[in-house]
Amino acid sequence: MSVAKEFRDFVLRGNVVDLAVGVVIGAAFTAVVTAFTKDIITPIIGIPGKVSLGDVSFAVNGSKFLIGDFLNQAISFLLVALVVFFFVVKPVNWLMARRKTDTPADATTRDCPYCLSSIPVAATRCAFCTSEVAK
What we know:
Radius of gyration: 29 Å
Family: Belongs to the MscL family.
Strand content: 5-15%
Structural class: mainly alpha
InterPro entries: Mechanosensitive_channel_CS, MS_channel, MSC/AndL, MscL_channel
Pfam family, one: MscL
Transmembrane segments: 12-36, 70-89
Protein name: Large-conductance mechanosensitive channel
CATH superfamily of the largest domain: Large-conductance mechanosensitive channel, MscL, domain 1
Strand order of the largest sheet: 1-2
CATH class of the largest domain: Mainly Alpha
Helix content: 40-55%
């Protein structure tokens, strides 16, 4: 199999395309949340009419520390994390809990006590080491 064919098969695999779509949508969503935080949330948190939280900074020896910008990014991160948790993680956990069966399925195989190979439950002799096994 050629490297080009292997690469094409890898790229066209469903999970790779799904991941790429998820990353693009996540980046777009993060940009929206960052804009929401910067343009709406932090001006409300700051002193209305005087200073926006995003503009808060101080300088030491000519170096400017943008405390407000850092707080903007921290608030954006928290908002994205909250949205992901409540709209992705919680619903997926709920769905997985509903799909979970209470009674485990009966095992169809067991281990041979002599060679530890997997054999059918009803077998009386191991197909691998030919030892007789009790049911």
